[in-house]
Request: fold
Amino acid sequence: MRVEFDGHRLDTDTRELVGPEGATVPLEPQAFDVLAVLVRERHRVVPRAELLDEVWGSQFVTDSALATRIKQVRQAVGDDGRRQEIVKTLHGRGVRFVAEVTELADDQPGPARPAPPPGRPEIDPDLTVGPLIGRTDDLELIATKTARHRVVTLTGPGGVGKTHLLHHVARRVGAASGSGAVIVELAPLRTGEAVGSALLAAVGAGGDGRSDPLDAAIGHLRSSDALLLLDNAEHVIDEVAAVCRRVQDECPEVRLVVSSRRPLALPGEALHAVAPLAEEASAELFVQQAQLVGADMEPSDPAVRELCRRVDGIPLAVRVLAGRSHVFSVDDLSEDLAAHLGRPVGDDGRHESVEGALAWSIEALDADDRGVLQHLSVAAGWFDLAAAAAIAGVDDVTAPLLRLHQQSLVVASPDRGVSRFRLLEPIRLFVATSRADRAAEQRHADHYLAVAERAAIDIDRPEIDRGFATIERDWANLRLAFEHHRAGDDLAAMVRMVDALADYAEGNLSSEVHRFAAIAFEAHVGANAAVPLSLRANHARFVSHRGDLAQVTDLLRGIRESDGSNRLSTALMTRDFFAGDLDATRATLEAGLDRNAGTGGFGEFSFSALAIISGVLPSERVAQLATRLERLGASGGYVARCFGDYGLAVRQLHDGEVEQAIDTLTDVEERFEERRHSGFARVATSLRSLALVRVGDPDLMRSMMVRSLERGLDQGAGSMMAGDIARAARLLARFGDVDTAVTLASAGESSGFAAGAEAMAEVSAGRDADGGDDERWARAVEIGRSLTLEDAARLAIEALSAIA
Reply:
């Protein structure tokens, strides 16, 4: 590969990077390989895990090694971590080469052809299973309609292949969008209320715990030109139609493709009916699927053609039948099918749709297997073997699962050695309609409550990575379990679920867990039941992210000492610290540090981080904690290593290596964001903003402060954002914008946060020294008192950005 970019030339054959002046730029071998991979894959975001695999293979290296090589690449090409004009880190996704690239022909100094457009959709290859058989014309027509219409809906009966086609549309049409393609899987959702959360998760924006998830997702998409694909919309059709209408109105460059059994009925909506496969194509699909189970036949076989005609070329029915072709002859399959589907509908000789084929498949099961299938239909998305056994209520679920899988009624996939299963959604929906009792839902809810509680134990131990991974893997079922508890008015189970997920929510700023806590709290109030202390504490922790200190205080009214639990200690520290009671904060903090010493889990990490960023402990104590974090990071997993780098940054600050500390914290922040651990990343943001005070470079402080405030708005970390607003007030006063400084300090002060009062005192002292206009001062104070923290943050960003 020989390419040119930004005055540089890269030749992977000679392993040379030549700079704008014609001199060879030295690069370490792994750094060169990182650059080569990023340039080669410039049409997409490359996940960090993929870069590690590409460059180091099976060799074990730390995340810091990759971060160092990326930094070396940026230095070699004249880029840096702040500008990111050539190598850009996309938080939560990976790294992308964003400079314009020209490919050079062999032995030619000039450009041969432009680089392919950016934005290839980041689609999991496992989502597109098998080749696109018999759908070439559909794909071309949909591409044309998508170019002409904002909304295109793929309609057709269940099992006709809409999802399969949708993922090929993502690859074909999404490649032309600068922002790529985003697929929103709606199948696991049980209520329309969850559509906004599903969209927010799919677009990769952080939940904020205070605003509607749909509002947050729409805000994220306003400046995007992504292709947005919503799959399996029929069961939440009204909510999806409302979402699409908002996207049409508020996101002018976003295009939508929806799969649904019925249209959305939107103005300007273009429909594309996904018809059953033609006879030749369905026969080809049948043979392909039959070969997977060891059956040998040809698409031209008249019996195969007849069987495919009899199921109307519905791909799902074809796959079900082909999965039995190694046991039953095609003639026997056809005869049984005729008996179960009955007579053709109407006079045109057409047979019943896939619902008839599904009914036949399910009725063909013995009673036990049919019961297991009906029970499993309560699950959302993927589930493991233990969950299957618990939900089905049987001692040995392996045999029925195997039989169901062999009949294409259950999909199986290994997940790092763990067997994972799911029902294809058309089958799940069809089976669920015949489920008479709710016992399976209760078993499902009980099982996943236990899963969450085991994960919570891991999170507070060195197995913290495993605990987070468990919750992320089973999130759809954990959410559904909470809804089952809610529907059954099981207040105790709702509290237990919030307790189990609370630390995960703090690490990820999960707005859904915040919602669970609010629902559980209101359910207790509505039932006139005493609100458990743990729920009050967790709800207070989550409310603090909205910056509502008054509600935090109300929730914890009368509580001065912790009961020894981390959740209550954290809530009390939040209240006391931001209200300015540093003695109480210090006492609770020290007790938490002692209680969690040596646990190597969330409690030890979070209390150490709070001790460092709060500034309430003496410097020698902070130095001890930094050393403790470094030691834990040296022998721990991903989260431990990142917190170990927090300790490294503190030591660098102590040694006067401020620039190095800022680089370390920036890297940690990016690594946490890549995993979508927004709460952990926010700790790095806060610590870095404190480090900036030591830099003494107002322009650097201004740009970093803007980034911190923007991230606070995205993540909803209201309590931390109050500190940023106070620092912004001080900085704007230094730049001479006293009016805005007074407004921001007043906003912080009126919200109850001590940081705002301190900033107001400092700005007031400067005003008294220089003299000032009393009327302008009063007006600025009045404006500030009317602002929310979010409004104040936006004002701070605008004012800081306006400074030349």
